[in-house]
Amino acid sequence: MFQRAIEAPMTTHVEFWLNDRRVITDVPDGMLVLDYLRKDRLLTGTKEGCKEGDCGACSILIGEVVEGVMRYQPVTSCLTPVGEMHGKHVVSIEGLNLPGKLNPVQQAMVDRVGSQCGFCTPGFIVSMCWYMMAARETPTLEGFQRAFSGNLCRCTGYAAINRASLDLVENFGPGGQWASIWEADDRLSALMEAGLLPGYFAEMPKRLEAIGEMEEVPRDDADVIDFFVAGGTDLYVQKGELLPRAQVKILNRHPEMKGIRRQGDTLHIGALTTFEEFGASDEVVAFIPQIQDYLHLIASLPLRNRATIAGNIINASPIGDMTAIMLALDTTLVFARGETTREVELKRFYKGYKTFDKHPSEVMTELRLQIPAAGTGVYFEKVSKRRCLDIATVNSAARLRLSDDGVVEEASLTLGGVAATPLWLEKTGAFLTGEVLTDALWREALRIAHTEIAPISDVRGSADYKRLLATQLLTAHVVKAAPERVSLDAMLAI
Amino acid sequence: MTEKHLDAELHTRGTSLYVDDVAPPAGMLHAAIYGSPVAHGRVKALHLDKARKAPGVVAIYTGEDVPGENQIGPVLPDEPLLATDVVEYHGHPMAMVVAESDEDARHALTLIEADIEALEVITCPRVAHEAGHILGTPRTFAMGDTAAAFAECDVVVEGRSDVGGQEHLYLETQRARAVPTEGDRLRVYSSTQSPYAVQKACARILGLPTHRVEVDVIRLGGGFGGKEDQATSWACLAALAAHKTGRPTQLVLHRLDDLRMTGKRHPYSADYKIGLSKDGNIQAFEVKHFQNSGAKTDLSLAVLERTLFHSTNSYFIPNVRAYAASCRTNLPPNTAFRGFGGPQGMFVIESAIAHAAEVMGIDRAEIQKKNLIQEGESFPYGQQAERARAVRTWEEAEEGFEVAAWQKDIDAYNAKNTATKKGLAAMPICFGISFTATFLNQASALMHVYTDGSVSLSTGGVEMGQGLSSKLVGIAARALHISPERIKVETTNTTRIANMSPSAASATTDLNGSATILAADELLGRFRELLARELGVQDAENITFEDERVYYRGELTEWTWEKVVSQAYLSRVALSAHAFFATPNVWFDKQRETGRPFAYHVFGTAWTEVTIDLLRGTYTVDRVRLVHDLGRTINANVDLGQIEGGLAQGIGWMTLEELAFAEDGRLSSFALSTYKVPDGDALPEDIEVRMLEDADNPVGPFGSKAVGEPPLMYGIGTFFALRAALRAAAPDAELHFNAPMTPEKVMLQLHHQRLRTLWETPSTAAPAAAGE
User: Which SMART domains does the entry link to (chain B) (predicted)?
Assistant: First the structure.
């Protein structure tokens, strides 16, 4: 497949703005923005640290007009294809530089020596500038930390970067010299006035509008496509070296597959909806109020801006974090192939390790789920070696509802990392449902759960460790859901 | 100005240049390396034909194509540039593809196949030791009579301590670019801490005299020891390709290749025996260190030596016997990493003390404090503690951070909380400064003053983020009495500075800064003579400089820096100076294992607090407070960055950073998705660093002390804080001295008892009866 594609990789004319320059290019669709910046444009401020989204040294901003307003998002350029940049504003570190002086973020990092070897620094500056552009409220240290949570620094230990962030909190926060920025209607203009963004940003909305729709040649996808690329956050990690020379279909050129809408008690989630979009949806927040805290444990902001829910499910990793949550929510998947569509329950979707009920030419278009009844809690637990931006050793989600007198009315429990597929604990849930929750019942439920799992030892942990984690994480859900019925002390004493 | 990191402005704008950021010369080729797919085997055949025909491929080279000596071993000649008959670790470089693009080169790699007859793979240093796979000769440092002392001890405990390796994870992977110049010469741009090592090795493999190879280093995107010796092979490979093809060639390792092909911090396994009197005085200590050296000698023998030097950390122990062996295994050759074997040595004595404290039922800190080395007491290698500040830093930390009250708070917290437990631990450090290979303690500086008064400074030191350039500018400005803005530190280049020592051993500022002061003194000496003539006075020694002005007998003259420089030029006085510095009074006798290897020691004490979540087995490092001995700082901000950054790496080494090797010798934590270094969330926000005040160092430039390595060892305190928290949760649990203390180890040690009770006992309660 790949050998054929190498002869003539698919190219289309992609037009976008790169910093303050208009670009029309016909490099292959699957080429990484990182490589394009460094090799084709000699914009070397963007660094390659890992080429798998795990270090943030290649962070850039991508801007587009959303409902008439420019919106920027940080992404890792090592996982982002050029083919998707049509009509966008691509901002590398060079595009944030002001002529002849440092912007306040850069100045704070210089003043506080937040940079040593410097290789990670442009990525940090991009993340921190983005936070100033996008923060909903006045900046906080924690806000900065979450903004650069996908950026690794090996030199400073982050202490100096925290101090630089605190300088910015002071200068831009209440009582600071630039506090007014947070009241401004147009944040970007205010930041331009404060010398944080170069003036050309003001031109971007109309510049982008002037770029027309992209013309795509219709073709029979099934015959010519080597790879379907959605967020690319896993595909580029696994197949990154093949993609620039392969025929790729950029799914994100199909915005109709994005977005979340509610119809009655059903939530329709476009397959290309990103993790961040999911977490930002008011509909989702209504039944998972803790969603932002859960997301903080999943990937990093730049990755969550790219990673799609459908991609997480199709990737079929036994430890997909979003998959665990969608499983607990009893999600149905909708597939399209030509004109025909088909529905599959997520809990019946996986057949074995990385195998599932899908024809190669089917494309997932939508996910559907019933909005949980009032009083239902949705819980997510994850243990990984590092708390943030790490792959789970074991993860678990739960949808739990108890009556006032402690009867389990609903128990949808999932575990990841303890079998060849993401697991929905059918027997355990069935056992619990209709029973009065007590310490003893829960112990028995755990016993049943252990009959449903089969962890193996690997680099993320030994089988024993995973069994222990399965016990603990499931317990964490019920202790949160009903602390008066299942006591943590009793569970720790088992 | 001198308190800044001078590169930071460029860094924040993304305009600082690393090897491959410089615009590529026309026609530049790209190299990629084929590494062994097995950890140990005899090479039967290497099939290159398919790869040779792949698009864009210009050439493929193997060990046979090396025109000079196929050998880059820096200490022992046991390391071919490209393996030929035998491969000895997974990823061992066997062939190099050179192609028109990086993509072409990497694509061709997938077409190479090797027939290799598998041989036995050893990954454990104890197994290697048993089998006699030992590099160099095992060493023993001894003082007093341990056997006699143990007989007199009230308490003797023995145990085993294991500590893992550590990936450097410099954000910039290994890379080099080689450009042919006229007449069989090469200019090599390398990301190396050791330009001279690269120069020598390139010349060796190409069969050229050293002067044909010029090595130039702008800066490194992090080194941490990982580019002290192990940048060499990649530079040699680029040089080989450039030499053979006649075209510029660049080799940039992809992260996954860098992870699997390069060596790391040495893992160690050790047996210890410690004896104390019942009041907590340590009387005797024996230790056997088994270093996991990997497949090649590299710098392992020097690392091993430093393990011995630091086997008693900050303590005075009258009877010591420390044995250490470099054990050859089938892992990539392990190498220098910040601390250079010292941290591994310290981990064992700290384990032994913790063990003894638990057996004796006394506070670990009590034993630590009681045994701190004092002025005039001897280390086991004969050197006496001079300006010993172990006790001072301990006491200042204990009082300044109100440790007694702190510990009380933690005990109260633990009494009240059942779901989480806290632990607090002290970590004193004592680290010797100087290369232990005495001859390396030399450096040169070349200073040019241009007629506009601007100054160019070259030294053999490499800027790798540690702020060397910023410190050198500070030193030169102070030595010349001029504004730092006038001074530019040049790239590190072997044609300007010959035979330089690597930027390592924390000594780069000491050595190159001292040479810089000598160069400045020489220039000012010439200026004094000139000015004496101009002023018509005899006593040139009474001419002084301050703030770019000249004073005679304390009186301001009309002479400014610029005027002096201009007059010197017109008077044909040399405006360039080359100076040489050799650290005085350091020596070591390897036959007797005794001497004075270090110019001085750095001392400090840290306290670390952690909290463990007993349900999930996860933890947070909550705060670290430390008192550190810096001498008189040259650049407080840069030094603070080194302390905090070193601490962060130490914490990472003790907690998250787990190198996992499969039994077949393959690295299973082979990507950033499986090898986790600390992110902002994983480190404490609450870090307090206090510099020891009134702490001069007559041996360091302007009274300063080296800073690079010692702070890393504060991180060891995190392990013992986690152990203290585990003890609070499970007083009777069997705990191991086995770092890193990953969440997995916390969980398994916490819940060891219940490991199987949940899923291996048959169910007794019927579901119907469970609802009571």
Answer: Ald_Xan_dh_C (SM01008)
